[in-house]
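Write out this protein's structure.
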Amino acid sequence: MGYQELFTAFEAEADAEQAVAMSAYMRDQFPYLGIKTPCRRALAKDFLKAARKAVEVDWGFIDACWARDEREFQYLALDYLHVMEKVLTPKDIPRIKRLATTKSWWDTVDSLDTIVGNIALSYPEVNKTLLAWSVDDNFWLRRLAIDHQLLRKERTDTELLSRILVNNLGQTEFFITKAIGWALRAYSKIDPEWVGAFIDAHRDQMAPLSIREASKYL
């Protein structure tokens, strides 16, 4: 199945009533076809299975998904990127940045967290880019930098995490203060003493939401 056929299959499953509800859940940021996640993944299963055999990412397909208005197409592109993580390299970072900064909302940006994080884990030179993102004017890039290590566990680079978090203390943007809390909460499952010490050292600069989220497992 080519991706144009897949797009047609998506369109055939449109549910106008469900689309309204899904868009409302996302504060009407984007229109939807009304395809729930299990159905979307079932429709794309064969396409994504075939994609696993490729040795490079089809950015033309991703661009086609991002050009569509309906949000399910962006989700399809992200499902595809997760399948293709094994072949992603630093050369893909500028393109991922474009995804993070266009049609931006927490649903797509948060899906890019681990994608970028896994590239950086394999190619540590990407850490310089993440540090730059942590002070970017675009707060979605900062959110992505803050949370890119969420699933690292014992492999978390605490020096990098600390620098990125400190770069974002004193912020009032909800999506940043929440991200700070999530990053610390995730690592508190591995090293609660480190997280507790970070909170104690920076409490005066941290938003109450960040402290509350970070302290959940302490």
